[in-house]
Amino acid sequence: MMIINFYVLLGGGAGLADHDNYHEFCRLVGRFKVNYQLSELVNMEGYSSWISLVTEFTLKSLQSWQWASSGVYYLLGLWSRLVTSVPYLKGNSPNLLNEFVPKIIEQFISSKFDSIQAGLSDDLSEDPLDNVELLQDQLECIPYLCRFQYESCSTFIMQITDPILQMYMEAVNLPALADNSELVIIEAKLAWVAHIIAAILKTRQLVGLSADSHEIQDAELSARVLRLINVIDSGLHSQRYGEVPKQRLDRAVLIFFQYFRKSYIGDQAMHSSKQLYARLSELLGLHDHLLILNVIVGKIATNLKCYAESEEVINQTLGLFSEMATGFMTGKLLLKLDTVQYIISHHNNGFAPKVFVSLESTPDAIFRTDSVKYALIGLMRDLRGIAMATNSRRTYGFLFDWLYPTHMPLLLKAITHWTDTPEVTTPLLKFMAEFVLNKSQRLTFDSSSPNGILLFREVSKLTVAYGSRILSLPNCADLYTFKYKGIWILLSVLARALAGNYVNFGVFELYGDRALSDALDTVLKLLISIPLVDILAYRKLTAAYFAFLEVLLNSHIAFVLNLDTSTFRHIVGSLESGLRGVDTNILSQCASAVDNLATFYFNNITVGESPTTPAALNLARHVADCPGVFPEILKTLFEIVLFEDCGNQWSLSRPMLSLILISEEMFTNLRAQILASQPVDQQPRLSLCFDHLMADITQSLETKNRDKFTQNLTKFRNDFRSR
C-alpha cells in the first residue's frame, strides 16, 4: 500500500510545485529505507516502477539545483542506504540499482558544474567550497554511490575531468588575463572534482568498502589530482594566489592529500596497496609512498611561502603538516625525505636565532621602535608554539638548553621596556606560561641538576619586573586589556611554576635567596590592587586568581599566614565569594584552598596542645581577630549542598569536615540556624538528619574518615531535601 501511495505522489507530482511541500516530501522519501529493508522493497509489487520514479524524481531535483538543493540531501541519503544494503540482499529479485546509481552520480556532478557555469552556488547564501560543514553534507553520500558502481562512475569522473585539466594545464603559458572568468570556472570545477575524489578515498578506510579491485580506480582518480599539482603553482597560476577561486582549489587539494595519506601512506598501507602504486608508477612514475609524501611536503612548502595573505589556506596547510608530523608512521617517513633532512640540517639559519641575535644586540636607546616591537611579538609567538610541541623530557631539554642562560635576559629586557604595551607583554607572558608548564612530566631534571631552581629564578625576575612596573602605571579606559589580562597570565605563570614539582623551594630560604619571596610579594600586591568585584567580573581573571590561591594555600600556606590580618581576611573572604559562583571548577578550587587552610588549623591548633610554629601562631591570631571567617564559609558550604544543584559534592565535603572538626561549637550553632530556618513540623526530622551526618565520624582527617563523611553527606543531602 505504501509503495502505491508513493507511486501516486511521484507519478502525479501533485502539490510538489510548492517548495515547502517539496522539501517535506524529500524528507519523507529519505526516511523510506529506515522503515523498510531492501529485501522487503524488492519483493513488493510495483518495486521496479517505484524505483524508476524515485530515480526520475532525484534526477529532476538535481537538475533543478537552484530551487531544490535543500531536499537533495535527503534523496541522496535514501540512495546511500539502499546501496549499502545490497551486500545483505538475498534472493534473485532484481534491485535495478546497478542501472540507476551511475545516472544519479553523473547528474550530481553535472549539477555542480552547471551551478558554476551559471555563476551561482547551490546554496544561494554561501558557496559550499567555502564552508566545510556544508561541503561535507553535500558529499556525505556520494562516495557510497560511486563505490557501488565504481568502474562506471570513476570512468565518468575521468571523462569530464580530463578536458578541464587539459585546459588548466594549457593556461600555464598564457599571459595575465584581463578577463579570467573562464579560468575561474575551470578552477571551481577542478575544486569540486578534487573534493569528490577525496571523499571517495575517505571511504576506503571504512570496513567493507576497500575491495582490492577498487585500487586501480583509486589510482586513476588520484592521478588526476596529482597531475594537477604539477601545474597548479606554475606560470599564470603562480600569479593568482590572491584570487579566491585559486585558494579554493588549493584547499581542495589539501583535503585530497589528507585522505590519500590516511588511506595509502604508511608501511602497512604500502604493502596492502600494491595495485594502486603499480598503476601510479605507470601513470606518473610515483612507485611508492615516499614519493607521494615528497609531493605533499613540496606543496606544503609552496603554500607556506606563497599564501601569507590567506589565513584559511595557511591554517589548513599547517593542519595537514601537523597531522603528518605527529602521526606515528608518517612522522617516521618524513625523516626519510631529503627535503625534510635538508630543513633539519639547516635549521640553525632559521628565523628565531637571527631574531635573537638582532634583538640582543639592539641598544636600549632604540629598543622601543616598531621594528623591535613586531620582532618580539613574532618571536614570542613562535617560541610558544615550539614550547607547546615539546611533550617529552628530551625535547623540552633541547629547548631549555637553547634558551637558558643565553637568551633569557632578552625576555627580561623586553618585559622591562614594553610593560605598557600589551601587544608585546601578552605573547611574552603566554610563552612563559607554556615554558614553565610541567605537562607529561617533561620538566624532570636530574637529581644533581639545578635547572628547576634556575628556571624559577627567571620566573621570579620576570614577575617582579612586570608586576612592579604595571602597578606604577595609571589606569586607562580598557582596564582589562591594559592591565588585568597581563596579570592573569602572570598568575598562571607563577601557579604553574609553584605546582610543577620541579623546584625545591626550601633551598631559597636556606640560602637566603629572595626569588620566591619577591615573586609572591609582587603577585600579592597585584591581587590586592584589583577590586574583588573586578576579579569576579572577568572570567579568565577569575579562573587564574582562584587557581593561584589553590596552589598558594596548598604549597606555600605559611606565606599567607604570615600576612597581616586585613590581607588574610581579604584572601579568605574572596574564597567564600568563589564558592558562591556558578563555575564548577572554580568552586572546587576554592573548596580545596579552604580545606588546606582548615586542615592546617586542625592539625596545628585543634589537636595540638598549643600552637608553636610562627605560622600556627599567626593563624590563631587571624582567626581570633576575624571570628566569623570559618563559620561563614561553613554556612556557605552547607547552603550549596542543601539548597543548590551541587555537581561536585565530593570536593565540597572535604572542607566541610575540616571546618566541622575545628570547632564543635561552630557546627552546633550553624545546625541550630539551619533548623530554625525550616518549618517547625520538619525540624525533628531534619535534626535527625544532622545526627546521621556525623554518625561514625571520628576526630580525624584521615582519608578513611573523609570518605565516610562524604558518604554520610550524600545521604544527608537526599534525606534533608526529601519532603
TrEMBL record:
InterPro entries for this protein: ARM-like, ARM-type_fold, TPR_XPO7/RBP17, XPO4/7-like
Residue ranges of every copy of the Exportin-7/Ran-binding protein 17 TPR repeats domain listed in the record: 119-349
Any one biological process term the GO annotation gives: protein export from nucleus
Keywords associated with the record: Cytoplasm, Nucleus, Protein transport, Signal, Transport
Superkingdom of origin organism: Eukaryota
Pfam families reported for this sequence: TPR_XPO7 (PF25795)
One of the record's GO cellular component terms: nuclear pore
GO MF: nuclear export signal receptor activity
Signal sequence interval, chain numbering: 1-17
Protein location: Cytoplasm; Nucleus
Family statement: Belongs to the exportin family.
Protein name from the UniProt record: ARM repeat superfamily protein
Organism: Actinidia rufa
